[in-house]
Design brief:
Strands 1-2-4-3 form a four-stranded mixed sheet, with helices on one face. Helices cover 28% and strands 23% of the residues. The chain is globular, with a radius of gyration of 14 Å.
């Protein structure tokens, strides 16, 4: 398909500001911390606005067996997003389903 782009997991294959918005749903928490930080930097590089849903909290990470062995609470995710270059982080939805928060990040 001509609209499919191959992604190496490190650098999004798009120029700076290629999009108005990038969305990610319950995926970033499966990456180790540094990779999650780098991917957020990449998303903010290609779009000034990122909408992202993440699982959060120690219980979630210890019980499902699929997430890396770190547990970020909501403040931890906000800190990661700011380290990635977000100047504004807003929680736009929390706790539905349980342990999921949706964030709006602005560059």
């Amino acid at each position: 398909h001509p609209n499919v782009a191959i992604f190496d997991g490190k650098t999004l294959p798009f120029e700076d500001d290629s999009f108005d918005v990038v969305a990610s749903k319950c995926a970033i928490e499966y990456l180790p911390y540094q990779e999650a930080l780098n991917l957020n930097r990449e998303m903010l590089r290609v779009a000034p606005l990122v909408i992202q849903s993440t699982n959060y909290g120690e219980l979630c990470f210890k019980t499902d067996g699929f997430h890396p062995n770190y547990a970020l609470d909501m403040d931890g995710w906000e800190e990661l997003y700011k380290k990635a270059g977000a100047s504004k982080v807003e929680i736009i939805k929390e706790g539905h389903p349980e342990f999921v928060a949706t964030y709006c990040l602005e560059r």
